[in-house]
Design brief:
Layout: H1 2-34, E1 39-49, E2 55-66, E3 75-81, E4 86-90, E5 95-99, E6 104-108, H2 113-118, E7 138-142, E8 150-156, E9 164-173, E10 180-189, E11 192-205, H3 208-215, H4 219-222, E12 224-225, E13 247-250, E14 255-257, E15 265-271, H5 276-292, E16 296-302, H6 308-317, E17 323-326, H7 329-334, E18 342-346, E19 352-357, H8 362-374
Parallel strand pairs: 6-12, 15-16, 16-17
Antiparallel strand pairs: 1-2, 1-11, 2-3, 3-4, 4-5, 5-6, 7-8, 8-9, 9-10, 10-11, 13-14, 13-17, 15-18, 18-19
């Protein structure tokens, strides 16, 4: 009986080792396959399932070509969303936002990668067709049924500081070509499960007409250049003004009024559960609260309808115990919240000392609080 058990265990260990080795081998084969072409032209269906259960289902087309000098994805590309009549062209240096209905384009001298990839047309780009993110922890391969293709799975490190966990990329590989048939990325963020699935079809490689579409883009002669009308500069700063009053309900279901904290320094942190910089700053805000004790009140103002339970999970995981309230459109408007996080520091006299938006301003918040407490 012991020999049988020993043999079974040995087979299991060997099978596991083979499985892991097969993952590494298949990754090398996959990288060789995607490295074998210069130009690709494909149709893609992208299905996004958000942490709140909302689903987006969009289809577009992309033509791309490797360009080692390119600052974005190492490629030049033309990505299109026919349903919206929107496209994005990038020549390796300069970006062009195309309105395919009005036949106009806006030149973008220094494209910002997150903005490009997050745009409607940019979302059609399948980055894994060009390269695999090398920061993975493990790679495995699971053979599929005949004709269905196997699945290459890459597990990426958790990012607890951002409340980002269980990061996986699953690439379904076509048995004949070795190229991706679909790519599925999944992550648990803010306690919710986020999944993006991109299904490729009509894939053509090294097609001359596709390359021509990038080398001699038709829009340069068929479309008119459009110069965005600059928005009027409006001073929305609250600095020096009395902080707008509010009466809100905390996540603990208790009423909270701003006026109750007159005589103390107040830090307002406007945030939402999908904001990574918001989550990253939470430990520092908690440290600020602990450092100054009852001289300072840190208040997180959640502007994320229906996300109270998810917010409490994030705060618990980040060990952030400072006061949090549920904000409304009224506070969003009164405090001119246009992006997250937005920080407002209020002095002991109830007047605003600092208002900044963006995660890079947490140090400015600390400095403002230090100065305000000393007065």
């Amino acid at each position: 009986m012991s020999k049988i058990l020993y043999s079974a265990c040995l087979l299991q260990v060997l099978a596991h080792a083979t499985y892991a080795q097969t993952g590494a081998d298949m990754l090398r084969k996959y990288q060789a396959a995607i490295g074998s072409f210069r130009t690709a032209d494909y149709v893609v269906q992208r299905i996004d399932t958000f942490g709140n259960g909302q689903v987006w289902n969009n289809t577009g087309r992309v033509v791309l070509q490797r360009n080692p000098t390119s600052k974005l994805l190492g490629a030049a590309f033309l990505a299109s969303r026919p349903d919206l009549a929107q496209s994005y062209f990038y020549d390796g240096t300069t970006g062009f936002e195309l309105d395919d209905k009005a036949k106009t384009f806006i030149l973008v001298k220094e494209p910002y990668e997150p903005s490009v990839l997050g745009s409607p047309a940019g979302q059609m780009l399948v980055e894994e067709l060009l390269a695999i993110d090398p920061t993975y922890e493990t790679v495995t391969y699971r053979r599929g049924r005949a004709g269905q293709g196997g699945v290459l799975r890459l597990k990426y490190p958790d990012q607890p500081a951002l409340d980002v966990l269980e990061r996986y990329t699953d690439v379904t590989i076509d048995e004949a070509s070795g190229l991706p048939r679909s790519v599925r990325t999944s992550v648990v963020r803010g306690g919710g499960h986020w999944v993006t699935r991109k299904v490729l079809s009509k894939l053509r490689l090294n097609d001359a007409s596709s390359a021509a579409a990038l080398h001699n883009p038709a829009f340069l002669t068929a479309y008119a250049s459009s110069v965005p009308v600059p928005r009027p500069v409006v001073n929305t700063s609250l600095v020096g003004k009395p902080a707008p009053a509010f009466r809100l309900i905390s996540l603990a279901k208790k009423p909270v009024q701003l006026r109750d904290f007159r005589g103390k320094v107040v830090v307002l942190d406007f945030w939402e559960t999908s904001c990574a910089p918001c989550v990253k700053a939470m430990p520092q805000l908690q440290q600020l609260q602990e450092q100054y004790g009852n001289k300072v009140v840190v208040i997180g103002v959640l502007l994320d309808p229906g996300a109270s339970e998810r917010a409490q999970g994030i705060l618990r995981r980040q060990q952030a115990h400072y006061l949090n309230v549920v904000g409304t459109k009224a506070e969003e408007s009164a405090y001119h919240v246009r992006a997250f996080p937005r920080y407002v520091v209020i002095g002991k006299d109830g007047k605003v000392l600092l208002d900044k938006e963006g995660g890079l301003h947490i140090e400015a918040v600390k400095s403002a609080v230090k100065l305000a407490v000393s007065k």
